[in-house]
Amino acid sequence: MSHNKLCLFDRLLRRGLISGIYPESGECRDKLRQLLANQYPVTVYTGFDATSNSLHVGNLATIISSLYFHGHGHQVICVVGDATARVGDPSGHTRDRKSIDKSVISNNSDSIERTLRNLFDNYRTCFLVGHQQATNQHVELKPPIIVRNSEWYNEMNLIDFVDGVFRDVRVGGLLHKKSIQERLKTREGMNMAEFSYQIFQAFDWLELRKRHDCLIQIGGNDQQGNIYTGHDLIKKRLGKSDSIGLLAPLITNAKGKKLGKTTEGAKADTWLNPKQTVPYDLYQFFHRTPDNDVEKFLKIFSFYEESYIDELIKTRLRDKSDIWYCQRKLAEHACLLIHGQEGLSEAKRITECLFPTNKNKS
């Protein structure tokens, strides 16, 4: 595992966990490096709408970046979007989202919160503690804050929200977003709820900035428009222009399609909730990674040192005596993070029973 606070941003870039920032400039990147090199922790957040009862592999790049910040002693906030799940994010959708019942959203939120807590717990116990003992380094960890955004929306009056927030958002900026432009070109168009989604996500960041001085938001590349709107809203409302968005790459399958809730095949083997995808199926999903993607996925989904990954690819990827060695290392790390030691042991036991000729040892 790599834990050098001075180089955190560059390490995330090299590992492919971050593909860009907003605002994008050399000056902004240098300011971010300086910020993360200081002794003082910063607050970073990422959000997940409760439109499903499970997160998926497509969310992992964002989550793992958050884990790195957590491991370096920074304050991580995970926002479960139970309120914004009712609004509907238009990103990646060609038609209107269906309205979701409040009770379903509440159950989804409970499930997502459990998954997030398990990921942070597994990261600390299965990866971070051993690294700190091996390197004789100790970082004071701040417990992650997991909050639902209904916490602030339930306190608000509609007219006050429109008067106090909508006035600081320009329609031209909203129309500039690619997903908005694509939807408006369709015959069906877009409903007002989904069109206003950017404003709600922007307000989430504004609220976190006021409550926790949250400087950084991590989101997928498809959220760049929402991050821009949030950055602009904070600047207008608080007079602060130092907010930074980190853009995580979109994880794609072998066909180049985004891995997510609406991707064909995702239902079978890419959910993080064990009730949706059992540990064995998730293990096999990573075990089936094509050779051309193994190095990329090892850097994104594992906590192996980069030098160890380079050595693996160089010496073991095409080792005919054990052709799945690198994939197995990837599957073990990913399954251990998501399902813990018990889940990994179960997945390896089933794999050994079904494929006894496979080498299923570390």
TrEMBL record:
Keywords: Aminoacyl-tRNA synthetase, ATP-binding, Ligase, Nucleotide-binding, Protein biosynthesis. Its EC number is 6.1.1.1. One of its GO terms (cellular component) is mitochondrion. It catalyses: tRNA(Tyr) + L-tyrosine + ATP = L-tyrosyl-tRNA(Tyr) + AMP + diphosphate + H(+). Pfam families: tRNA-synt_1b. Belongs to the class-I aminoacyl-tRNA synthetase family. This is Tyrosine--tRNA ligase. It comes from Aceria tosichella. The lineage of its organism: Eukaryota, Metazoa, Ecdysozoa, Arthropoda, Chelicerata.
